[in-house]
Structure formats: structure tokens, C-alpha cells
Amino acid sequence: MTTTRQRAGQRPERRRTRSRRRTTEELRSRRGRRPESARARTGTGVTRRKALRRRWVALLSVLTVAGLVYVLFFTSLLGVRSVEVVGAESIPAEQVREVAQVPDRRAMLRVDTDDIAARVATLPGVATVDVSRSWPSTIEIAVTERTPIGFYNTGEALFLVDTGGVVYKEIPEPPKGFPELKLAEVGPRDPATRAVTEVLASLPGQLRERVTVLRAESPGSVEFTLADGKVVRWGDAEQADRKGKVLAALMTRKGKIYDVSSPELPTVS
């Protein structure tokens, strides 16, 4: 009976010990954990710091872009300091600069290149103009000059005519080495002018150098006079190579007028 009571008395003691152990472990684990509310507050703080950092980065980016725009468009830091003229031979480069009127020290990005090109294109002898920016501070004006092929006498003044039939520059006297274009009208839209310029450009070099006068009442009636007074009736601008060969053979014969307008039936008179 004594043994039984002792065992019976020991059982509750063991139960209390286990219960105490569990309670102690729970307390220890709870001490190592943060309350839910504290964790929430910590997460919110981190989020706010990240958001604030992003706002500062965005603000600095905007300020940087605004500063670059201001420097590029509204200061002379990258402004025009020189104007370079390329391709001008018969036209003085200083004359091109004067007409171009490029604003000194103006921000490069604010320079209107189209306006500059339009002003330079008004110069006699200029066929095309290309204006570009050469960083950091140079405006480049590339000029293509007109190529004269002859001159035109209006009865009051003499003018050079280019390969496109454009009358572009007044001259004081007939230029050496260039033929006179005796036409009712000279211009790039005139059919007779186009035919004459095309025929002249298609002639062999030695023959072209001997031409002194070109005439045409229509695109199909081109004729020219040579330095020795001989007249060549060329016709239209077609079959230029064949006409040139026939004319070379035909001019071995004596004559005043050489007609190769129909190269199949050339005549000399």
C-alpha cells in the first residue's frame, strides 16, 4: 500500500514538471519573436524610405535633363564660333559667310540651317547648298557651284548659262571657250534650251571646243556653228554617238553645211 501511494503521489509531480517545462519553452520562443504590430511598423518604414529614395532619384534626373536642355539651347557654351565654307571656288568664301548670316555664339541647336541654306542659294553661281552642324561649335556650308556651258545675250546684257539651262550670272564680255546660245528664250523649262544643252554635253570633246554658236527653234532643229564657219545641222538630241561618228567621216569632204539630223542619210552642201 505504501508503494502504491508513493507511485500515486509521484505521478502528479511528474505532470507538473512537464507542464512547467512546456511553459518555459513557450516563454523563451515568445521572447525571440517580434510582435506582429512591430513587424508591420518596420516594414512600413522600409517602404517609406524606398519611396523617398525613388522620389529623390526622379527629382535629380529631371533637374539633370533640365540643366542639359538649358545648356544646349540657351547658353553659348556650345554656341557657334566658326563658319566653314566648302566647295566654293569662283565664289569667295567670305561672300558666302556674309550672305549666310550665321549668328555668332548662338546655341548650335537653335541655328536654323534651312534658313542659312536658302540665303546662300540666292548667290549667283550656286547650284546646291548643304548646311550642317560640326560639333562642338562649327557650322559647315557645303556649296556646289553651277557649271557653265555657254552664254546668252539678251540684247542688253550677257549671262552665263549652266548645264541645266539656268541663266545665272551677268558677265561683262563673252567668255573664252564658251559658245553663245542664240535662242528665243533660255531657261530650264524651255524645250529648245534643254535640247541644246543636251546636244552640247553629248558632243566629243574636240568637237565641242570648236563650237561657237548654238541655235534651235524647236527641240528637233538643233544646229551649231564651228570656229571655221562651218554649220552642223544636228537635229534632236537622239543618237548622239552615231551622229558624231557620221559627222567625223562627213567632214573629210569639202562643204559649208553638214547635215546629220538623219544619220542614215547625211548630206554635205
UniProtKB/TrEMBL annotation:
The keyword Hydrolase does not apply. Residues 22-39 have a biased composition (Basic and acidic residues). PROSITE patterns: POTRA. Pfam families: FtsQ_DivIB_C (PF03799), POTRA_1 (PF08478). Residues 1-46 are annotated as: Disordered. It is found in: Membrane. The keyword Transferase does not apply. Residues 78-146 form the POTRA domain. Keywords: Cell cycle, Cell division, Cell membrane, Membrane, Transmembrane, Transmembrane helix. The chain crosses the membrane at residues 56-80. This is FtsQ-type POTRA domain-containing protein. It comes from Prauserella endophytica.
